[in-house]
Amino acid sequence: MFLLLLYGSLLAADQMPNRNIPPMANEKASKKTTDAATAAQKKAEEKTAKNTEQKLGAKNDADLGVPEVLIVLGAPGASEYEKAFQSWMNDWEIAAKKGGAKVTLLGEKELPEAPVKERLRAYLQKATADRPLWIVLIGHGTDDGKECRFNLIGPDVSATEMKSWLEKLKRPIAVIHCGSSSAPFLKALSAPGRVIVTATRSGSESNYARFGKYLAQALGESRADLDLDGQVSLLEAFLFASAGVAEFYKGEGRLATEHALIDDNGDGLGSQADWFQGIRAVKKAKDGAQVDGQRAHQWHLMPSEKEKGLSASARKKRDELELKLFQWRDQKARLNEDDYYQGLEKILTELGAIYLESKKAPLAP
Ligand SMILES: [Ca+2]
Ligand SMILES: [Ca+2]
After folding, report:
1. 136 versus 38: which is more confidently predicted?
2. What is the Å distance from ligand 1's center to 344 Cα?
3. What's the CA-to-centroid distance between 268 and ligand 2, angstroms?
């Protein structure tokens, strides 16, 4: 209990100080420059980049620290949907920029010479950085029983195509498909290191899906922060949005025509929000299957100041230990009490050390 309290107090500790910032990649080039004006300009650019990295919490391994967010706006089909989709997209864009992510919007404008599908493929082809990538699909989906598609202006993109485009990327990826008939995307895109969220639990849930509305609202919503750590994780946003959807249909006196899924353990089986108590899944997809949700709980579009205070490598280590902690707790019933608490103490001590180390780190010059 003491250790649990210790860890809790560590988590609740004040904002971590900033740490040393690495030299900029173009430092060598600037040394060769003799022109005074160019050097001054370069210095100013470096200062700006340095400040940006500092703000974003990107420390020794900056590339891992700053996520990319790709928001794809689908074909609306009717003006009423166009307004809704545009509004959700705006919410995502604002939240992602607030969080310091690099944001790309696709689908806003129709460019006959470069269809949205082609631009999406081209983006993913080049998306080889190590940093986390969020892909948010806002629009309608369809499923004819053979192939599931996300509707774009111009040619649609299929789940099979997305699968092949993502296959070459070895980075952490979250795909969030807010449209109707989206579930087959989960099956197709599920893989280790990925979080997949879909608005529906089957391809046949083909009515207009409202999940995206509630998900967009959840991003900056303090009520969605279930564990009260000052930030809304992707898991928390999923749970909040699912509750909003359920409430909507209940309020309308209608049977819900959409049930969102989340998968983050790479087994291609999604979990529904009503399988969770708080942020923990209490029901499993099938016997022996690992529960979903804990990895998605480590994805934050708008990280708290404390989260930003961790270097990317410390965050990575912390994430691994947190997963270990959840898995250890899941085994409680199978272990004798002494072994269980010894194991727990070891993990909590390691976790505590990460936060203490961050607090001790020197301030950036
Ligand atoms: Ca939270
Ligand atoms: Ca799963």
Report:
1. 136
2. 22
3. 5
Which residues share a beta bridge with 120? none
Look over the chain and give the mean of its residue pLDDT values, rounded to a whole number: 84
Residue ranges of the domains in the chain? 62-303, 309-365
Q: Which residues pair with 150 in a beta bridge?
A: 141, 157
Least confident of 18-32, 53-67, 283-297: 18-32
DSSP annotation of 99 reads T
**Burial environment of residue 67 by CB neighbours within 10 A (0 to 12, 13 to 18, 19 or more):** buried
| Identity of residue 324 | K
pLDDT of amino acid 287: 59
The answer to whether the CB of 93 falls within 8 A of the CB of 103 is yes
Ligand nearest to the CA of 236: 1
CA of 151 to the centre of ligand 2 (A): 25
Q: Which ligand is nearest to the CA of 284?
A: 2
Six-digit token string for 184: 């087959």
CA of 322 to the centre of ligand 1 (A): 14
Q: What's the confidence (pLDDT) of residue 267?
A: 94
CATH topology of domain 62-303: Rossmann fold (3.40.50)
Residue 285 Cα to ligand 2 midpoint, Å, equals: 7
Other CB atoms within a 10 A radius of the CB of residue 346 amount to 14
DSSP secondary-structure letter at 300? B
Ligand nearest to the CA of 268: 2
Select the more confidently predicted residue: 30 or 120. 120
Structure confidence by residue, pLDDT tens digits, 272-314: 999 999 998 887 656 566 789 999 999 999 999 888 888 888 9
**165 CA to centre of ligand 1 in angstroms:** 31
Contact yes or no for 255/249 (Cβ under 8 A) = yes
Give the tens place of pLDDT for each residue, 316-360: 899 999 999 988 988 888 999 999 999 999 999 999 999 888 776
Beta bridge partners of 105: 71
- 162 CA → ligand 2 middle, Å: 19
Which ligand has the minimum distance to the alpha carbon of residue 191? 2
- Separation between Cα atoms, residue 213 and residue 243, nearest integer Å: 12
- Number of C-beta neighbours around residue 244 at 10 A: 18
